[in-house]
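> tool_call: predict_assembly(chains=two)
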Amino acid sequence: MSKANKDFNYNYLSVLFIYLISIIFLISAFQLKDVGSRVVPIAISIFSIILATIFFLKTRMDQRRRTEEKFDFSGTKTAVKMGIVMLLYVLFTEGVGFYIATPIFLAISMIMLGQKNKKTVFLISILIPLVVWVFFDYMLNLRVPEGIFFK
Amino acid sequence: MDFLNFMVEVFNFTNILWLIIGATVGVILGAIPGLSASTGIAIFLPITFNLEPVTGLITLGAIYVTASYGGNITAVLVNTPGTSDSLFMVFDGYPMTLRGEGLRAIGITTWSAFIGGIIGSLALLFIAPPLSRIAVKFGPWELFLTTMMGIVIIVGLSKDGMLKGLLSASFGFLCSLIGVDGITGSTRFSFGIDAIYDGLPLLPVVLGMFAVSQVFELVTEKRDMIVIDKNAMRGSVFLSLKDHASMLINNLRSAIIGTIVGIIPAAGTTVAAGISYEIAKRTDPHPETFGKGNEQGLACVSAANNAVVGGSLVPLLTLGIPGNGTSALFLGGLIIHGLFPGTELFTRDASIVYGLFAGLIAAQFFILLFGLFGAPLYSRVTRIPKSILVPIIASFCVLGAYSGRFLCFDMYLILFFGVVGYYMVKAKFSMAPFVLAFVLGRNSEIQFRRAIMLMQYNFTGIFFRPLSLVLLFIVIILLVSPIWGDIKSLAKKMQCILFR
């Protein structure tokens, strides 16, 4: 991780996020026809903007006094990789169904996270969908994503 | 007598099976650092969704109770609290393990947790029903103030400052406003997405925030697993009568403290353990041995910790005020099953709520069972490598999100809230205010609007309702007290500037 990244104060990103969300809600609230429906959303949005502004000023002051918060985002790259694999898993689950997507996901993510024992990878990848089938499908009669093949 | 009848009715094969599943999952999740009762409840919410309400709540209750205890195991054996609740266990538990008394330490923490849990659950049984009768006197305005009280208390307890807690709560409140307006029935803030036409579903949001964010966090950790030294697992978990007698008063006192602290919303296990520890230290003939493996020190925090669970459910079930993040999730569990805190829970849904009490008491016996007979297994449980655990949890999260409404959209929603939750943890925002505001936000808006309509937009009406005034006073005190020090120092500075 570069020094610039290390020194980045994530409070600013948080402020930006809160501003964005609050402004979206504020604009949408003003478009509502019923006055009663908009009172609370407008109040909360404005309250959030005020809070975010105070938070921004406090962060600036802390930075000037060199008492700013320290953040540890180390390892986020691995988390992002995991997030991408999970996103692909969800897309796959929607497409081909849970029972096909899950063994693939489990095997890939286990290998990605450092599992070297191929027997374990194989067993877990088969065992978990089987457990889900017994508990969800057979015992609880719950639906799992079917995908195009099981419809 | 009613309760005994409910007990007999509740303990059928299905409920006992789910109690065992819940208790086992709770102990395991509690023992694994990084996972907690919140993660367990979040993962199990979708599974209990299709069960009978009483079965579902017994399962969630068992997870809550046993996960609180599960954290003690790793705290005592490897100096790593499985949950933040078990922080105090390391003070005296781990030094005992270093002395080669690991199994004895497990025995002490198990028995004390059992005594604490039983007292907490009995308090819930006897205090909650009469307290719920007071809730009948609450009108919309009082209900609004009560929900606000719950949110403000959690905000005040945010570890990283009130401002961040308030921001987290505001975000949660905004998310709760998405969907059908509870008064007019018109749709708001759905941004053209049909799947959130009637609001963001609780299950994927909670699963994303607590479980998926944990998945992301676990993969960032460097260590692969925790290891328990074999030499530490010596001695016996079974204590002598003399040992029990010597700890009895300490255990009872700590359990009572834990229960009272649990009833006070948001005071939490750390406060209960801290007070109990301090009192035990002061009353012990050898206070200098505290922190160096004193058995009384370990016993008091274990009893207090588990008593908090029962206590924290008192305000939750009677007034709808969750005492901590985990009980906020538990409130989600109640709502998912169509149950709402208050008098009706103890009259119309009495069989469910008394079934829950019976389940909570039974779960305490599982603590004994797991503690006394499962100790040799713990060294193996905590050895599950991250590379196996994380993908399994991730897979169950995705499935859990889907099973709430059978919509693929919800699988994407947990990913979104998982990212949000991960960012919040890393950027040091507490998630509890978000969840609480998200769970209570919509209802508090409805109550607020009802109240102002009933008062015909005349706010002076508040001053003629003593209960409202008291609640308003409490909310203001709770809001101001965490920043009172800052206000005083700011006033001093202003004084200096003005009168220099």
